[in-house]
Write a sequence for this structure.
């Protein structure tokens, strides 16, 4: 176990706890940058997809993991970001370098707009409200046909940054680096947010609204800001998702995507940035893994590979149930426990991470 | 006359939403948890009844398979709480929401695997017959849906307000710890609540399947039932029925009088408006939390 001597107050909020940690993360970054040189196109595509999902997961993590507000409607903001990005490029002729951040801002503003009346709601009510927004969004896209193309959908234009063409199919490596760049910037921003007063007021609201209020945190404003930041990041992810898919319509961003996003960050581990990435790994690698398994079993039993509809979501649901029952902290929580076990060996106790149980009291009178 | 028929078929539809919403409300009232898989419970109940009754499956008489399906769903609800939810005792509400969403995925897959993804309708004696009141022609299925729903809601309302078990359920949700001290077996009461809600879901499923056809993805109408429960005021039994009927009536009228494309938006728009302006529903039961 490494003991870090804290010689200044900054040591508590530094990006890295110590040099070794910085070294490993740097190594990971170098590896991620080098991926287009060492893998084939299929894996590169999967990695791009993974990074985009992690970005969306980070967006939702701000809201669910750090502010404690459940949202089942984030696919709606993926859609906002995606459509805004394409429309700004095609209708207004803006370059990607402007339309992309603008898409994030538009998604963020629409999130704040929705957050203002819903900050009164919490728990179940907020979940249902965002669920309704996600369903409405599909209809809004159909109704806004002159702008959104309705059922026919839109095609994402080729990105041009300073004369450099970035296309998902023609230059997948450039597109990958673009996504990686956005992801790294977002992670740095996210880390910075968490160590700022705003980020800590998020956590205060999550842990107890009443005590946060007592400490002088404006709960309604904090929730609205959290919603805005969360939907802005999600909007950026949506814009990239649109560019990645190349073509999308009202059925690209369904309620299922919303739910899958939420399930993803729960499996990964709520309240940690790592959780968004680990969850994205599970979500994006599960379908190809299942396809490979299906082919293998098909060969073993002599039957052809039969597609069973709904199998992926069902297996994902099963994994999730197991996680909530046995490891509510997600994959990252399990990793953290294992690491602590070895760091403290032989002093690790079983109930070290046991959370205090709370007994329910209702707010209803009858 | 046309409007009246539209109204009655709307009410019949709304009663099914109301019944699913009733399932939510029962669980919410007694355990303070929210079952996002209630729509899938209904779907499962319908498929169990269908699997027992229809001639391509087990071909049992309708009046035997209906109580059997209700009982099976009751046992299913009880076991679900006993084996899975009891382990989560004391965890947050959001964890239960996520768990039940995941359960919904699993149930949908299982139903599709066992009974297929084609829409099937239940071969019930109430399907496809007419009742005449003067010049008014009503489907027997619609009339029986309305009657069963009203009786069931009234019965459950009485159960919660009068019976010892019902009052115990309410006590268990008001304050779990205090209920323990008063000698209420909170855990068993939770399981019984889930059993009750499973039974209500089975009734809803049977009625729905005799009115039209069902498929595994039909559980998504649970979202409309959510809207119903919220509009009525989460935690209020008559409110759930009222909300269900409002949603059920708005739908056919909106599709009749509002331009196509805008009509299916109506229930959700109403839900969001209610949440913004009267967050705790029409028959509100929530009071400001005091520190």
């Amino acid at each position: 176990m490494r003991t870090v001597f804290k010689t200044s107050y900054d040591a508590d909020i530094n990006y890295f706890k110590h040099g070794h940690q910085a070294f490993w993360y740097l190594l990971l970054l170098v590896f991620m940058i080098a991926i287009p040189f060492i893998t084939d196109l299929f894996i590169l595509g999967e990695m791009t997809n993974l990074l985009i999902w992690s970005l969306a997961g980070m967006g939702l993590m701000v809201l669910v993991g750090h502010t404690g507000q459940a949202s089942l409607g984030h696919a709606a903001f993926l859609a906002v970001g995606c459509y805004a990005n394409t429309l700004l490029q095609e209708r207004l002729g803006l370059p990607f370098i402007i339309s992309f951040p603008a898409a994030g801002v538009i998604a963020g503003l629409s999130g704040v707009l929705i957050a203002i009346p819903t900050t009164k709601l919490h728990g179940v009510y907020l979940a249902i409200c965002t669920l309704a927004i996600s369903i409405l969004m599909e209809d809004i896209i159909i109704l806004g046909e002159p702008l959104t193309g309705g059922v026919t959908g839109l095609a994402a234009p080729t990105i041009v940054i300073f004369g450099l063409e970035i296309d998902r199919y023609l230059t997948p490596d450039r597109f990958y680096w673009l996504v990686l760049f956005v992801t790294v910037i977002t992670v740095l921003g996210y880390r910075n947010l968490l160590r700022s007063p705003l980020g800590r007021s998020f956590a205060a609201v999550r842990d107890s609204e009443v005590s946060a209020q007592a400490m002088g945190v404006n709960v309604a404003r904090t929730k609205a800001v959290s919603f805005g930041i969360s939907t802005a990041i999600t909007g950026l992810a949506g814009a990239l998702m649109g560019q990645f898919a190349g073509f999308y319509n009202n059925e690209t961003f369904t309620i299922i995507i919303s739910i899958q996003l939420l399930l993803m960050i729960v499996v990964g581990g709520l309240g940690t940035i790592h959780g968004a990435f680990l969850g994205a790994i599970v979500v994006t690698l599960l379908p190809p893994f299942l396809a490979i398994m299906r082919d293998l079993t098909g060969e073993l039993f002599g039957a052809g590979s039969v597609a069973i509809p709904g199998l992926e979501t069902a297996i994902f649901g099963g994994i999730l149930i197991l996680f909530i029952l046995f490891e509510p902290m997600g994959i990252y929580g399990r990793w953290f426990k294992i690491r602590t076990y070895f760091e403290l060996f032989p002093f690790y106790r079983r109930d070290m991470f046991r959370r205090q149980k709370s007994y329910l009291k209702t707010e209803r009178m009858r | 006359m046309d409007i009246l028929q539209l109204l009655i078929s709307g009410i019949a539809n709304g009663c099914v939403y109301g019944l699913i919403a009733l399932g939510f409300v029962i669980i919410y009232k007694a355990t303070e948890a929210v079952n996002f898989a209630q729509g899938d419970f209904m779907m499962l109940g319908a498929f169990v009844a269908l699997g027992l009754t229809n001639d391509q499956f087990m071909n049992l008489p309708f009046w035997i398979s209906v109580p059997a399906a209700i009982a099976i769903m009751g046992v299913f609800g009880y076991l679900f709480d006993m084996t899975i939810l009891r382990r989560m005792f004391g965890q947050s509400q959001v964890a239960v929401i996520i768990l039940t969403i995941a359960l919904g995925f699993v149930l949908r897959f299982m139903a599709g695997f066992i009974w297929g993804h084609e829409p099937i309708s239940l071969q019930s004696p109430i399907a496809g017959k007419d009742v005449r009141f003067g010049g008014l022609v009503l489907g027997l299925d619609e009339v029986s849906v309305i009657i069963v729903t009203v009786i069931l809601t009234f019965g459950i309302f009485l159960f919660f307000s009068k019976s010892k078990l019902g009052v115990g359920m309410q006590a268990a949700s008001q304050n779990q710890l205090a209920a323990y001290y008063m000698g209420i077996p909170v855990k068993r009461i939770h399981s019984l609540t889930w059993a009750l809600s499973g039974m209500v879901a089975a009734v809803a499923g049977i009625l729905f399947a005799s009115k039209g056809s069902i498929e595994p993805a039909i559980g998504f109408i649970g979202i409309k039932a959510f809207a119903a429960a919220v509009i009525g005021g989460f935690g209020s039994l008559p409110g759930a029925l009222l909300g269900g009927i409002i949603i059920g009536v708005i739908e056919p009228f909106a599709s009749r009088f509002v331009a196509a494309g805008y009509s299916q938006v109506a229930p959700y728009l109403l839900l969001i408006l209610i949440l913004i302006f009267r967050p705790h529903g029409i028959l509100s039961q929530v009071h400001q939390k005091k520190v």
Notes: Chain A is about 70% helix and 5% strand. The mean pLDDT of chain A is 85.
